[in-house]
Automatic annotation (TrEMBL):
One Gene Ontology term of the molecular function aspect: glycerone kinase activity
Protein's recorded name: DhaL domain-containing protein
Transmembrane domains' residue ranges: none
Region described as Disordered: 1-33, 256-276
Residues of the DhaL domain: 54-251
Gene3D superfamilies reported in the protein's UniProt record: 1.25.40.340
PROSITE patterns (alphabetical): DHAL
Organism this protein belongs to: Micromonospora inyonensis
GO biological process: glycerol metabolic process
Pfam families cross-referenced by the UniProt entry: Dak2 (PF02734), FakA-like_C (PF13684), FakA-like_M (PF21645)
Amino acid sequence: MPPHTSQPAPDRTAATGRSRLANPGAHRVGDDDARRLSVSASRLSAVLETLDAVAVRRWCATGLAALRRHQGEIDDLNVYPVPDGDTGTNLVLTLTSAQQALGLDLDTSPEGGTTAHGHALRLMARGALLGARGNSGVILSQILRGLADALAPVPVIRGGALAEALRVASAAARAAVAHPVEGTLLSVVAAAAGGASETAGDDLQAVARAAADAATRALARTPEQLPALARAGVVDAGGRGLCLLLDALVEVVTGEPQTRPAPESRPVRPPATAARETGSDAYAYEVQFLLDAEPAAVARMRSALDALGDSLVVVGDDPPPGQPGTWNVHVHVNDVGAAVEAGVAAGRPYRISVTRFADQPAPAPPPAPDGAARAAVVVAPGAGITEIFSREGATVVPANPSIGELLDAVRATGAARVVVLPNDPATASVAGEVVRQAHPFGVKVSVVPTRSPVQALAALAVRDPKRPFEDDVIAMAEAAGACRYAEVCHARREALTVAGPCRAGDVLALVEGEVHLIGADLLDTCTALLDRMLGGGGELVTLLAGADAPAGLVDAVRAHVARRWPFVEVQAYAGGQPHYPLLVGVE
């Protein structure tokens, strides 16, 4: 069953918005004048006075395209010059999940009492929540949730409603963060809400522009608010992503592309696929195919298929009027031949897939949690680390999981009490949301806030199933907190750190997330790091060799510790983690 990726719905804004084109007068115009008037009329016909469900879907698609174009740029806005800055990637994955949620419910009517635009906003927010990755993704999902909560009951969304919704969204995002910090995405969304609320009148375009402009100004101020950004010479990455989303909203409501200064690259268009749905038992077959056809022919085909069955989903790539596009068609029918013939009448169907439901085993329901069982779920960034945690009896999830992926892992354990070890500051936000999401399933989740795999190893070493669960979690947290952690990597770019300036290619040693040493030689920097950490005391050193660690590095570090610190025990493993040749733990 192929994964579903929604495509932008056909542009129907001309039908939902009102043209504000003034009468050009009765005088004759030349060809150039006529061309200018034609362009002007086309642009103004896309202007929206209200935000409807179609516009919400277009905003999601437009915002996702903008994030994809600038994904690398946002990834590079990392506070430290380490090689795994991934805020842009996290935002793209989060909004991709939001768009998929919209696509899965493309032709489903809203629930009773819910507006069509509210239904779309709630789908978007729910998809973002389950797909959220990292701090930025979790905060973005809360912003979308705040917008949905505020706008769903509003009959018609104009400027005043949008301004109030941004205020609610800003409050929701701030409430989701235990210790809010200025100079981050929170500051940018707050400024957007402030700019929107200061706009007089109820004009949707004016409020959207004011919010986007205020967010851009706030983004420029983030280095003044957060010293770490100033040292790195960058603005906040999450805030940059939000600015792109607000610019996308302006583009949707005004019909005018936004061209704020930023490096441009070709957008990546997701494949046109659709998810298989259950549908009614009255239909025995699922038919799916790709179709090259013009929008008008697709509309006729949609009507024909709608009369044949249910679970009809048709998504496409929004081609220009009069030109063929690529569409994905999904329907449940009894007459397979008639469904395929409808596609032939519309254009060129291919990759035709027919599934007989009677041949498909029914999905097994997730097991009810065992009230007496407990489990540990650990996030691991490398194959070697994964094997180590698996031997310790933990369920392992790959690095940078979404909320949905981590929640699935928690439920798959079948235990009613689960401890989660995120092993990364960004994933800690994801794990925190899983605590709330798991509760309705009867699963109690506790998070031990580990920031490195070496801390997770220390925590798992003291786990004792004979203790009460809460006491066991406390013991694991104490063991993790007593383990100081460090990591060694190569600088990806020139930057100013608390240890001084560094250049691309320099070796960086980070202790507890802060750059402490900058060197030119990997081994020398690693040994200097161990000397600095053991100078504050320690009895056990854990070394995890990365995937790109040179041969002999760990042995040389072990030999150095044996000579310099003869009473310290050293345990070394092949971790296989990317980016970091060496991870260090000192207990």
